[in-house]
Amino acid sequence: MSGIATTTVPPALAPIDASYGVTQRRVAVSEWIKFRSLRSTWWSIGVALLISIGLGIVFSALRGHDIEHNGGFEVDQTALSLRGFYLAQLAVGVLGVLSITGEYSTGMIRATLSAVPKRVPVWLAKIGVFAAAIFVVTLIAAFIAFFTGQAVLSSYHSSGLFGATGFGLGQTHPLGVSLGHPGSVRAIFGAALYMVGVGLLGIGCGFAIRNTGGAIAALFGLILVLPLLAQALPSSLQVHVVKYLPLLAGTAGMNTATDGDQLGPWAGLGVFAIYVVVALGIGLVVLRRRDA
After folding, report:
1. pLDDT per residue over 137-168, tens digit each?
2. In degrees, to the nearest 5, what angle opens at C-alpha 72 toward C-alphas 66 and 145?
3. What is the DSSP string of 71-84?
């Protein structure tokens, strides 16, 4: 019966599990590859480093010169050397937004969510990779800004009380302080934590809005515009509101000296963390409920 054609019935195929082989570690590795492969990552980090360190040196030199030649009293030398982070936060915040909206604008997010349909691992991986990378980079920048800023300040001298360093009136002493100065190490770590928080706010806005321009506008409005609007409040109310806004609360951790109009370092960072958690939570809800 060689003339009779035969057919081979293939074995039944097992159902394809879209999540087969997907682990949180693998998703994190994938996000790390994407994060370090983008040119915007390196441009933003480079700008943030240049601004945070460069402006710290400039402000330290200007303030030191002013105190030495015109007199004055600067209560927080550490915060002065970290002043550049107030502008560098914009670069980090934009990077947080772009790390999300860039995928939506190119359509790459569809491939990402097809490979990881549960979505939560993607959300966690993006947060974890970004937070770890920015914390390391900005912590290094904060230490460099501190040491260079204090080196510049130490080239200037003041006679009189300065920063609670223990010098009496009429005694001349350098303006810079050492790393052992009370609160300096905590302020350096506070600067790095604040920068991470700003970037995560950008990620939350990116997930929630999915448009680069809109997310950046929302981020800058939250950080920069709210304090300006709060200035329109009556002074009796303003003093109780402003210190709880993201900018004042988050940057409280960068100071070694506080006053009654500002939250303490850890309390401020705690309040700022609430803003970050809420933004990321809204982003997660949108990510899970809306199609890519």
Report:
1. 999 999 999 999 999 988 877 765 544 444 44
2. 60
3. ----S-HHHHHTTT
DSSP state of 257: -
Which residues of 6-144 form beta strands (DSSP E)? Answer: none
The token duo for 219 is 């981020």
Residue 174 β-bridge partners: 157
- Burial of 75 by CB count in 10 Å (0-12 exposed, 13-18 middle, 19+ buried)? middle
Q: 3-state DSSP: the chain helix, strand, coil percent, rounded to 5? A: 70, 0, 30
Residue 173's φ and ψ, nearest 5 degrees, are -150, 155
Per residue in 56-69, pLDDT (tens digit) is 999 989 888 888 77
CA 90, 47, 207, 29 torsion-angle sign? negative
Largest Cα–Cα distance of the chain, in whole Å? 117
Residue 281 contacts residue 288 (beta carbons within 8 Å): no
Say how far residue 103 (Cα) sits from the centre of its chain.
20
How many CA atoms within 13 Å lie on the side-chain side of 107? 0
Domain extents in the chain? 24-289
C-alpha triplet 111, 46, 127: angle, nearest 5°: 40
- Beta-bridge partners for 194: none
Residue owning tokens 């991986």: 125
